[in-house]
Amino acid sequence: MVDDAATGLTPKPIDDDGAESMTATHFSWLEAGQGLIQPKLDWSFLTRAQLSCLRYTAESREIYAADISGVLYLMNQHGEVVHHIRDIKKVTHLEWSANGELGLICQRGHVVRLLNRNFESEWEAKFREDVRTISIAHQADYLAVALSNSDTILYDRFKRKISRIKTVKELDELHFAWEHKTIIGSSDVGLLCSFGLNGKLSWSKSPFREARQIGINSNATRIYVTVPGQGIQVFDDEGEKLGTYQLKGTPLLLSISPLGNRLAVVTSERYLLWMNSEGTILWATRTNEHIASICCDGLGNQLLIGFEKGEICALSFEE
Predict the structure, then answer these.
(1) Which of 116, 173, 252, 266 is least buried, going by the fewest C-beta atoms within 10 A?
(2) Contacts of 160 by beta carbon, 8 Å cutoff, 6+ apart
(3) Measured distance CA(261)–CA(112) in Å, rounded
């Protein structure tokens, strides 16, 4: 793999009017990376405080981010802040539709709000149970909320309840397929399932004891799961295991491009891996700082990296 390297970052914080901030120095961890291709740094940006959430919208090609100080950001593909708002406190989850029209946030663990592009609230829902995760369909027509009592509630964009489904374990991740109305769900304690808008399970399996994160391609024909001690396990749209990608280290974070051609992985040892759909590592490096979130773009040409301390950077891969 690659040697550990100091980053030497000296980023400027975001200024009071929300203008973007660029780092003045190069990233040495980027130069230390090894592989078949070498990415370049397109831009970087520093949030006002520690990063809490980061999402990329594959169709509108925008970036949404939240920090722990209560600032919510909308950036264009060049890393320039288009809009921001303060006092959005204690955001625990953030999801945004691929077309950029609407987004979901969860605050304080039990309040879910639907926001438009201007960060205005379309509606909100409060739950007695803790919200484990949220998700929104790529055209913003449906959304899902998974609760700590193992219920998952499906709504349309107007807050009409479509269905409710109870799973054998509480779900920690939800992903809408793009090309048909299927939702893939997973639990950190060993459940992988698929269900439709009618709330009926298509299948439910427990192929592992523990999982950290899952990712799917746009039509959910490939499901990737990071499993501690077992690398990345790959399943098809019926929940059948197709294989395992064995990695050095313990995979924590995962992102797959909707096209399905590129996969990014972060391990607990701070290794950052860029892979193809067959599991071949195309590039790898190790960072000094911990990464909070990663997002592949729609075509697998760019990777967004959100560091815990608030640095967001975009890498482009030209082969």
Answers:
(1) 116
(2) none
(3) 33
Closest among 149, 198, 154, 203 to 174, alpha carbons compared: 154
Question: Measured between alpha carbons, how far is 95 from 115 in angstroms, rounded to an integer?
Answer: 10
Q: What is the DSSP letter of 290?
A: P
The dihedral over CA atoms of 253, 33, 269, 73, expressed in degrees to the nearest 10, equals -40
Nearest to 219 by CA among 259, 179, 261, 173: 179
Helix (H, G, I), strand (E, B) or coil at 31: helix
d(CA 312, CA 309): 9
Per the CB < 8 A criterion, the answer to whether 310 and 50 are in contact is yes
Q: Measuring CA to CA, how many Å separate 63 from each of 56, 80, 84, 184?
A: 5, 10, 12, 23
Cβ atoms of 104 and 93 closer than 8 Å:
yes
Token representation of residue 234? 């790959």
CB 42 within 8 A of CB 316: yes
Which residues have a Cβ under 8 Å from the Cβ of 278 and sit 6 or more positions away?
none
User: Model-level pTM?
Assistant: 0.89
Looking at this protein, which amino acid is placed at residue 78?
H
CB 30 within 8 A of CB 53: no
